[in-house]
Amino acid sequence: MKWLVSLLFLAIASIDRFGFCASEPSSIFSNQELRVAVIYSPPFSMEKSPGVYTGFSVELWEKLATMLKLNYVYVPCSTMPELMQKLESSQVDVAVTNMVVTSSRLKLIDFTQPYFNGGLRIMVNADRRFTFAKFYEALDKYGYIEIFLVFAGILLALTYIVTLFQRRLTKDFPQRWHEGLADSFYHVMSVAMNGKTNYAAKTGALGKVLAGIWLMCGVAVVAYITSSVTSIMTLNKLKNEINGAEDLNGKLVGVMKGTAAEEFCQVHQMYVKAYTDPKVAVSDLINHQIQAIVGEAASLQYYDKMHPELPITEVGSVFSDEKYAFGLPKKSDLRTELNIGLLMLQEDGFLHDLQLRYFGDP
Q1: In this structure, is the dihedral angle defined by the CA atoms of residues 313, 124, 121 and 99, taken in order, positive or negative?
Q2: Is the model's pTM score more than 0.70?
Q3: How many CB atoms sit inside 10 A of residue 144's CB?
Q4: Contact (CB, 8 A) for 157 and 192
Q5: Structural element, H or E, at residue 118
Q6: What SS3 state is found at 159?
Q7: Tens digit of pLDDT for each residue in 111-121?
Q8: Of the CATH numbers 3.30.70.1050, 1.10.10.10, 3.40.50.720, 3.40.190.10, which one belongs to the domain with range 17-117+323-359?
Q9: Contacts with 105 (C-beta within 8 Å, 6 or more apart), sequence order
């Protein structure tokens, strides 16, 4: 009888040794349903269809979950502040998106080890054509339209005065009013634009003096109009020239609410308009409601790539280096297992291949 018991124990040990008794879970969390927070942030996390998500971070998480045999359910969030609040209050177990590791966030939540090196970049309106409509808008904005209307009124008044003088002093001057006004208007504009007149020799001493004064005024008018147009065009050119973060001072910059981009702009005391929907931010950029958008470089480039019909482009190099990681509640027991899994995926090349598929060669 004893030999039967010994044989039974030997069989059990052999089964366990050769892995036939594989009911042992790969993770202590395998019997739980983890709540995974996601947010719309292409190309890292996107909703492919109702309840089905895709993206760089999502694919990485799902590979990690399969490897560790984790059960989970996605919990969609509308904004980054909402996602942060759910993490802080442990309403979710992990956040899967391009969360930037910052000192301020580390005071509130924990992170896994970083899985992606990113940074910020600037998106601008690619339509920099200086159309007549934009030119008129700039003239009106800076008060030049009113001044030009005054000049026009003065020119019309002078046309009438010159016509009165010429009808009395010049015998061969057209006596019909419409012909006389047209002739006088031509010569008034000639003086204003070119500084020349054909009336000086025909109007006597007083006429010559008046003509000389008007010549001087005409030169001043031409100089003022030229300088006004030049300044408006120069101002518009400078307004559109954004090539890096140093050019954002004094500009109204769009950012996504609660992101590292918003924090960066606030630290550098920029004028910021926060958005919860990237489509609205881009629409405002196209309609000149804001001068630029600051956001994660990969997200901006992906949005631009997916919308070739929009007049948007990215300028400058990547700045403010960032590390992306999965977010966790404070003191989460899941952190160690996820870190080990991320290292394994990095070592076997999965993470590298995933980056190549989404972003190409660095």
Answers
A1: negative
A2: no
A3: 18
A4: no
A5: strand 116-125
A6: helix
A7: 999 999 888 99
A8: 3.40.190.10
A9: 84, 99, 111, 327
